[in-house]
């Protein structure tokens, strides 16, 4: 290593959180190597909503000028009662122009964000992304961490100052660190169905982001551009407790589910569909020795509200700042405990709490409780001051301010 050159940071996982973390470190002059077990960039169709707070961070990294023209700008989002068809509440982020640099949610699929970063910045000697590399083992030392990976040409050994696990809910890095993943998994699974049918053709009052409450089968409906830019609508539902994965994924099962909520003439054209388990879990700590966790490796939650990827990117930016202090400015490594305290607080007190509350609102079965929750949401949206408070929280601004105040 050349004199004065900062030590390399190793990252496992080339999803949006891992790549944003790598870019943030790279911007500070810290060399990074990212290892991804998949053979190439993964077209993961899960997350697609970038909140205003996240767009601010990506703008600081020079990313928004590329992604905003390619995404869908969604200023409003709606809560609806699917039983009656009534609009319960609408929130308009454009009223927050005095707060946010980007007063909207950008609908932009996570795999596109990953691709944009890799295409523009990766594969340089100091920003090295290696696909087809699976982590096998981790050994920590006083001043470094060694890993062994299975690469396309066989086992490889690498050494760095720190190892960051951005490798998802089943994180190998978290398991190597012996960190407990506390929480629970929902009994029902979630099914996501994408179709090119334009729901706004029959419901021009729909927003690009819609949350439908239903005591039997709630639904999230939102739009993305898709591969060709023509537009896809994604619908997320819970599966029934007695429903097998094969039944949920069958063409007739998919059609029945869509027709139940959105009846139309003829069958739906389905672009893709998948069923997945959903959990609410948070790692006991995000930092142990020279191992650090970000994103789904540190916390997972249900997708209602689009907070998982956003919270993970917030982790990545916070951690990159702390690592820069340690590696470039001589701050003691114990400073990384502050990263864990701040971001774990954000995950537990805000992301977990809000996503659980969102799910309870949509699935409430008791008629009186449903009406009470609807009335509360209406009052919140109709009052400008309470609506702004709600949007601050839903956009994760409150979580950032509270977490960053922790010392």
From TrEMBL:
Keyword field: Oxidoreductase
InterPro entries: FAD-bd (IPR002938), FAD/NAD-bd_sf (IPR036188), PheA/TfdB_FAD_monoxygenase (IPR050631)
Molecular function as annotated in GO: 3-(3-hydroxyphenyl)propionate hydroxylase activity; FAD binding
Gene3D superfamilies: 3.30.70.2450, FAD/NAD(P)-binding domain
Domain FAD-binding: 8-352
Taxonomic superkingdom: Bacteria
Keyword Lipoprotein appears in the UniProt entry: no
One Pfam family of this chain: FAD_binding_3
EC number: 1.14.13.127
Name of this chain's protein: 3-(3-hydroxy-phenyl)propionate hydroxylase
Organism listed in the record: Pigmentiphaga litoralis
Lineage: Bacteria, Pseudomonadati, Pseudomonadota, Betaproteobacteria, Burkholderiales
